[in-house]
Amino acid sequence: METEAVESIPRTCLPQIGAPAPDFKANSTFGPIKLSDYRGKWVVLFSHPGDFTPVCTTEFIAFTQVYTSFVERNVQLIGLSIDSNPSHLAWVQNIYKNTGIEIPFPIIEDKDMKIAKLYGMISPAESSTSTVRAVFVIDDKQILRLILYYPLEIGRNIQEIIRIIDALQTVDKYKVLAPANWYPGMPVIVPPPKTYAELKERVKNIEGYNCTDWYLCYKKV
Question: Where does the record place the catalytic residues (predicted)?
Answer without folding.
Answer: 56 (cysteine sulfenic acid (-soh) intermediate), 56 (cysteine sulfenic acid (-soh) intermediate)
